Amino acid sequence: MARRTQRTTASLSFPVWAWLVFFVFTPLALVVWYSFGYKPDLFTAVSTDQLSFDRYGEVLDGVFMPMFWATLRIALTGTLLCLLVAVPFAYWMAVKVDPRWRPLLLALVLVPFWTNFLVRTIGWQVILAPSGMASDVLNAIGILDGPLDILYTRGAVQLGVVYNYLPLMILPLYVVFERLDPSQREASRDLGAGRWRTFFSVTVPDALPGIASGCLLVFIPLMGDYLTASVLGGARGTMVGQIVARQFTSAQNWALGAAMAVTLMAFVLLTVLIVAALFLLVRAVVRRARHLDLGVSP
Amino acid sequence: MRRERRDPVDLLLAVFGVLVFVFLFLPILVIVVYSFNTGRLLGAWDSFGFAAYSRAWNNPVIGDAVRTSLVTGVLASLVSTTLGTIGGVALARARPGARWAGVLTALLAVTLITPEVIDGISILPWLVTLGTDGGLSIVNNGMVRLVIVHTSLALAVVTFIVRARLRGMDEQIEEAAADLYANPWNRFRQITLPLAWPGIFAGALMAFTLSLDNTIVASFVQVPGYTPWPVYVFGTLKVGLRPEIAAVSTVLLLLTLAALAVVWAVLRRSGDDNTSVAATLTGG
């Protein structure tokens, strides 16, 4: 009986397998295949009659790597800034705010999340323009003299990135902070630990799953995003995703583009594995350092 | 619990919280305000009026783009919710440690972490191959292409939301139904579906908004005549942004907020507390 149910369950998932294989993983496999090919002439995008690793050599020597490092810098800074903003904010929402107001505030955080990505970035373009609102305000309060010169710079891209991905950091953190048991914090305070000690040795360790998933939710899409950069960074805001896209659109060099895509994908997968390993490591260290298991399983 | 009303740290946190909300809403407010700009360019404020709304309404290109996006959103949401519900049910009911379930979860997770640009560049040559050499001319249709790529984007999200919903549920109810000789289909329809319903509903909404929001993948596969709204907006970036874009965005924002309110109300009614509604809606 049980065995038959299991077989039904497995075969139930067939349509999902079929979709994934046909529309996701075959195309991805094709890209890996293309990455070993070459561009034979001006009018052909790819040829795979001779296979080599030459395209990967081109990736490592060409314009891809500097762009990759620039994108990585923006992505890491962006993730860190999101974390710095989201931790106190989510903590405030989940712990300090009156429980009656929490649903409303949570709904408000979701509003930008559900506004078109491109349009809210365009909103920043309007604000940051030399004749825009930010410029007027800064001039009025005397911080700035003359038009604001931030649009189409790295600073504007960084701001836009933090803005666009902040809700993705806030939500998982809110969920873990909300699930925390207040009596643990009180116990810690009663046992003489100060506010900060309590926060860092009771609250943060239990929030680790939320921190890890928040960082991944921000960092991963950020590495491939080039919309924010093209709206706020102009020509100077090129991100690695754009370089990859260009090989398939204007440059029509699928072999090189495929090698770039595989490199990017490998990096993303590696990041996930490293974060997962770090998470397990940190949790193990924390458990050992805390001497006492508070009995909260995430 | 002791309340320290005048605690400076609490006050600081509250001020910070309000500032973050201002930050989160600033560009959205700017878009709403500038949708009433009567000037020709979005960023150059002229005077207050509804000109942008009437121009957007009378612009057939904008109308087509919005229609394409809405139809794609509904269709992609239907397809991905159907597939995702099946997948979510199968994963939630899999024997712990079943190898197929592990592999399927991993594959779905890979689709979640694949950068959109890679989804775009990989699906385009494949669709071209299928449409020309493969003889599957249906994939040359712009709408079909958009529905395919948006279904792939949303499939994992829907599956995981439905699975999370069913995992907490009592499996014995289904077993009881089986013992009472309910056939698998009736068991699915009368027991599993009602249990999974809030998750399915939330998943469908997520799929719809993912589709409506998607620019990068859609820009790769789009065919003239089927340009979705975000791709249209992205195209106007280079030639100059007009207040019409803000006007349409404001209308879409209001529609999204209404949809969100409906979903929230439905989930609340099905007995969830607010935190689990939030968790369901965000796939946690």
TrEMBL record, chain A:
SUPFAM superfamilies associated with the record: MetI-like
Signal peptide annotation: none
Keywords carried by this UniProt record: Cell membrane, Membrane, Transmembrane, Transmembrane helix, Transport
Boundaries of every ABC transmembrane type-1 domain copy: 68-275
Main location: membrane
GO annotation, cellular component aspect: plasma membrane
Subcellular location: Cell membrane
Gene3D superfamilies documented for this protein: MetI-like
Protein's membrane topology: Multi-pass membrane protein
GO biological process: transmembrane transport
Chain ranges passing through the membrane: 12-36, 67-92, 104-127, 156-177, 198-220, 254-282
Annotated Pfam families: BPD_transp_1
InterPro entries reported in the protein's UniProt record: MetI-like (IPR000515), MetI-like_sf (IPR035906)
PANTHER family, per the entry: INNER MEMBRANE ABC TRANSPORTER PERMEASE PROTEIN YDCU-RELATED, INNER MEMBRANE ABC TRANSPORTER PERMEASE PROTEIN YDCU-RELATED-RELATED
Family (UniProt): Belongs to the binding-protein-dependent transport system permease family. CysTW subfamily.
Protein name per the record: ABC transporter permease
Automatic annotation (TrEMBL), chain B:
InterPro entries named in the record: Bact_Polyamine_Transport, MetI-like, MetI-like_sf
Keyword NAD: no
Keyword Protein biosynthesis included in the entry's annotation: no
Primary localisation category: membrane
GO cellular component: plasma membrane
Membrane topology term: Multi-pass membrane protein
Ranges where the ABC transmembrane type-1 domain occurs: 66-263
Key words, A-Z: Cell membrane, Membrane, Transmembrane, Transmembrane helix, Transport
Pfam families: BPD_transp_1
Localization terms from the record: Cell membrane
Parts of the chain that traverse the membrane: 12-36, 70-91, 103-128, 143-162, 195-225, 245-267
GO biological process: transmembrane transport
Family: Belongs to the binding-protein-dependent transport system permease family. CysTW subfamily.
Protein name (record): ABC transporter permease
